[in-house]
């Protein structure tokens, strides 16, 4: 990372009681557009097409094309395959889990008493983010150690060792490191210094074995109420109110060890385990319009407000050390430093704005959709990642708590940039059978050119519609590049793992006209 980002983020190291980091903002905003099997098959490009329950979560104006009632169910399966490169070493990991596409009910009805010829109301649910994943990487590092992060937190605090051991804010790493003597004070040339035992190996030129695994579970399930009206089958306007429900579990394992085989180095290994659970809910609003300047062309525009989340983190951790002759082996948990309890943090989060401009061309457009032969559709989406933020919440908020989140807001602005996403898809209809294909590209949200991240989705599917019943089957192949930092330091360039995730989404949608 660039030194500018290191300076901006150094203040965040002082507040170990907070589990939030700048990367967490992507957890609530960096994921492909989800939907029904039909929507995913065309790359998620639903901004101007309409006539699908997925419009509730993309451009609610698309609900205005409904004039009948429809019940939709979309179960699915997500297949994860991860590759990680860390300091010249490659690793792989796999994990699969349940997926939920857009499901719910749409109630469309005609009106004979005004220019507004029809309206529609929808109640839907979708899994906007799927957290079921497993990432693992390892390598040798002759440059830095996680233990140096504990050194920085303690040194910058200005506290004595006894005071730090009695400060619950250091329970997740720094206090256990001091308690086990992984971090200690040393006198060098009459000057007292705070150092970690692995640093002495690094000074000798010994590269440390480092490995990290991250097992995540859960997802964001969004409930939404949508409404749209249709003016003369030319102009559609709609809105939806979304209530995303967050359930996130993260199990992190980190190990650092001496590969030299020297039993007199005063360091054999340490292991750090952390369990974080995040629960909460949010609120957002989506507004959109679709205009048909001609029978064959549809133009759409939608705005998604930031989602305002109210969240609670619960965290516990443990540290095990083997320092050979320097100190006895120790295993200590965070509960030792917080009166036997679990760390709890309440806060709010604000996700970025989104704006979606879109267009569709329908072949052989007709009022009887059975006569239509297909379409091409595309979306361009703007996402303002730098506008994301966190704020302290709860009854015991201190000025230090709020300062932490104010500092993080500045880090987010210097860390992320706005990005453009592109989605494209099409369908060909052969009587009762439809063939679909699509693709999407999600741009890099990082400012630093060293941090390369993007997401590419290729998809295809089949559909069947006859006598008020429809069945859609889709497979989407998603390729995602991202980075993961095993730890953060303010006085050195931070090392990171380059991740490549390949996810296969198999989704089935079954619907009935009612």
SSE order and pairing:
Blueprint: H1 3-9, H2 24-27, H3 37-41, E1 69-73, E2 75-86, E3 89-100, E4 103-110, E5 116-130, E6 133-141, H4 147-157, H5 161-165, H6 174-179, E7 183-188, E8 191-196, H7 197-203, E9 208-231, E10 235-257, E11 269-294, E12 297-304, E13 308-322, E14 330-333, E15 343-350, E16 354-363, E17 374-383, E18 389-392, H8 399-415, E19 419-430, E20 433-442, E21 454-466, E22 469-484, E23 497-513
Helix pairs in contact: 1-8
Tell me about this structure.
The structure is a single chain. By secondary structure, the protein is mainly β. It has a single domain, classed as Porin. The protein has a 14-stranded antiparallel barrel with strand order 1-4-5-9-10-11-12-16-17-19-20-21-22-23. The protein is elongated. The N terminus is likely disordered.
> What's the overall average pLDDT, rounded?
90
Largest sheet: 14 strands, antiparallel, barrel
- Can you give the helix content as a percent range? 10-25%
In CATH, the topology is named Porin
Low-confidence stretches: 1-11, 13-17
Compute the number of structural domains.
Answer: 1
Radius of gyration: 26 Å
Throw out a few tags for this protein.
single chain; 514 residues; mainly beta; Porin; 14-stranded antiparallel barrel; two-stranded antiparallel ribbon; 12% helix; 53% strand; elongated; disordered N terminus
Task: Compose a concise summary of this entry.
This protein has 514 residues and is mainly beta. The chain contains 8 helices and 23 strands.
